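OP here, attaching both records as promised.
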Amino acid sequence: MRVIDTINAPGAIGPYSQAFEVLGLIITSGQIPVDPADGSVPEGIAAQAEQSCKNVRAILDAAGSSIDHVVKTTCFLADMGDFAAFNEVYAKYFTSKPARSCVAVKALPKGVLCEIEAIAEK
């Protein structure tokens, strides 16, 4: 196992790693839309989805993989009413259309609107 850590994505806000590489897979922790440069969170679902996708991409890049190698994502939305707007942004990044689960949850860390976790091949 190898821990993946990059300054190009937000640091963990709890006792976990950004990602692990194991058995040829990169498994990311959920990425909320925090800008790693200054810790800010953009407003609105489109901007937040964009930042979450960028954070996932940065971790995969640091691991020597890429967003094109993602085989599965799990997406969390604070409001399923944001599903269409979230999908519009998500589709720009995950063009290979990996397997996906997308669920609404009661709340997300820091009051954000979305979170994305991914599994990619190396």
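Record two, same layout:
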Amino acid sequence: MTQEAPFETKKDPKPYDLEWVQKDPFGPLEHELKFEVDRFRVEAMATHLEVLCQRDPQFPANTVVSLYYDSPDLHFLRDKLDSHYLKTKVRLRWYEAAPGNQQSPVAKAPAFLEVKRRVGSLRRKARVPTNLDGRQLARLPRDAPELLLAPERLRQPGAHPGGSLEPFLLVRYHRRRFVEPLTGARVCLDTAIQAAPARVPGPRLTGPFAAATGMPIPERLDLAVLEVKGSSSTLPPPLVHLVQGGCFKSSFSKYGLCYERLAGAAA
């Protein structure tokens, strides 16, 4: 595992673009297609992707850890569960070594704040680096100041969605990354998806947040997700037949699905 965490592939801004970048921290709109994969087809899917695509040259695989933030009334989550056309996610993300990785641990696992905005199947994402170390964050209680105050770092670049934000849900999964060579689309296969509730201190423990602390921690979800990101609203031709068996197109949200599974287990 390398020291750097994966950035999405974008053209480097030219000097005369810097003023625009400062005004709008979000990247360009792009399509994001998602497919749920039956757990019995995951390894077959991975084998086919190895043949049809190229492994990401920088970050072929690692474990992704995302701490999702939401408003006290879970505004972002409700937008997703109610299938609103416009949706927002805020998360603090860092990366760990992939399962079975025998490389020496890195000195630091940098964490990034991300704000993801969806307009139907299109998305834009702002990604703000921090000086926080993911390895240390993973050991902190969810009411640690480093976690509670982290979203404030989004204000200066203009990416903060507004309002009060609290850590709500921790999601972890293994990601394998590929590039489809004909179209340049980025392809991810996410497996071993797990979630745990984030706890917040006494006075903040109201409404859905209070209910979240009673959620048991489940085993990993019994499905995987295939994501294809790029400039096209359709799949690259080599991948069309791949998703026709054992997969179905979905508006899959790890945040939304993990909450539903946790809430269902607590009911």
